[in-house]
Amino acid sequence: MSKSLFDKVWDSHVVRKIEDGPDVLYIDRHLIHEVTSPVAFVGLESRGLSVLYPERTFAVADHNTPTINQHLPVQDPLSANQLKTLEDNANKYGISHWGLGHENNGIVHVVGPENGITVPGATIVCGDSHTSTHGAFGAIAFGIGTSEVEMVLTTQCIMQPKPKKMRISVNGSLNKGVTPKDVGLYIISKLTTSGATGYFVEYAGDVFENMSMEGRMTVCNLSIEMGARGGMVAPDEKTFDYIKGRPKTPKGADWDTAMEYWKTLKTDDDAVFDKEITFDASDIEPMITYGTNPGMGMGISNNIPTAESVEGGKATYDKSLAYMGYAENEQMIGKKIDYVFIGSCTNGRIEDFRAFASIVKGRKKADNVTAWLVPGSHVVEAKIKEEGLLDIFEEAGFVLREPGCSACLAMNDDKVPAGKYAVSTSNRNFEGRQGPGSRTLLASPLVAAAAAVTGVVTDPRELL
Amino acid sequence: MAYDKFTTLTSTAVPLPIENVDTDQIIPARFLKATKREGFGDNLFRDWRYNGDNTPKQDFVLNNPIYKGKILVGGKNFGSGSSREHAAWAVYDYGFRCVVSSFFADIFKNNCLNIGVLPVQISPEFSNEIFEAIYADPNTELEINLEAQTITLLATGSKESFDINGYKKGNMLNGFDDIDYLQSMKSEIETFTESRPF
After folding, report:
1. pTM of the predicted model, to two decimals?
2. Would you call B24 and A313 a contact, using CB atoms and an 8 Å cutoff?
């Protein structure tokens, strides 16, 4: 029977099928961080269990880490305790641990691919919904809850009903100033935040074939924001070039064997999807969000839609715009902003900083803007310096911080104050996401850069 | 951690007819710093429930004493956003054993099932009927019967059935969880591991 890429990977990991129940799914790689893992260890210890395959789990500190002075002790006692708990648990069970200050440290979804933990055809989970990022390599990767973290630690399996399959194709070529982030935000704005719930997505078509690995990671990362458990792109030469020689990818004869398998990982021509959606790349312009969920996005040159023109109830829509301090039909261009955040597992990779630099080069940071530039990892940080981007940033009045999740979820001190507006390259514009009362406008690194140098929402195409 | 069995539940319900309630509203990230599963109910809907100075927001439903019970009735796409199980823990710890909605986000629903909170998905029409009934009379009771997979508005007898797979239903009726099941197939998993290429 014809199979999709998703079927091929999923079916090869089913240990047992339960009648009228979920599949018992084998997990090849398990990433853990300090926030969603501690209770899983408490759980397994209370049952007298241990970690079955510690070599398949990788611990990384990222959610709750400071982005300045990482060499000093962490000030917040609760954060410090969480970081120490991760380290203690990792040491106790023989799990590799890239804590604060480790050269491989960074955001878990940035360092996984950098170190070759992420490979095609694997199943990868983490107690974090943006685990979908790893789907860019043709892996099945998705976020899980802490009970499931405990399951993976103790049995290397979780129990999941097989999701339905959706293929999203974007054909044609992207316009100037349109980045992978815009493609993602555009798709979410069309599907809404629940439009892909219950599905696993395969991204196909010219745009994804031509996209860099960094770009594919950005798009797959955002899959969860339309409700999908994950998204994936078929591996190709670009994928193999990216992973070859990375510390944890197969070597020598093992590489050759793996390559033979990886080359079979594509959707058969006559495979059937539960849902097929196609978009035209030329319809996409630089995007920005105006509301309090990632589906509330629009082309940057448009006006804020009216309640009647969007799906959902008017009361919820009005509540959202009231929170943002915006009204229907207003322009977004020219809106004053206070903060700019570039970073996160969505847009914290080297390509994102190159894009940011392409606009701020030779310009100056606007006086009314506080900017947080947070690399996704130490590897990204080193590249920023190596490529001379840091000089560009510093000349323009920006400071580079140290890696971590930072203001994406504002668990650390990087909080946007109440009522302030932040143009953010992260993934969620929920109420209070970037700090209590904060207002978030999601956008690409180019839109963020244009806002950072002008102090207002600006069409980046005017500055390219 | 195993949980209490769920068979039938008859209770008044708390209405929250807002769509796309995300897990950052259910429990904001700054309350995720604990290393034990304790006290999350205190911060359930923290920023909708309390002002910056920690005084209760009088217009939020959890601060209105006329609405109470073990059932939370939410709007469409309840629980979207992050995978934090803390959101489900907060719901449970506050005292809810069941969340009713016309649509659930996937991971939240899974997390609920894993910790003993029953997610009951109903039609948008029945959801509206329930909201109207609760607003007309806050003492309106709902009956959730897991064995029969039904949810009933007791005052009118209006009823709908809901889906749950047989495996999860069995778990909830018996208070079992997935780890109990997975532990029982350990040798099968070990054999499978040997066949993995990487």
Report:
1. 0.97
2. no
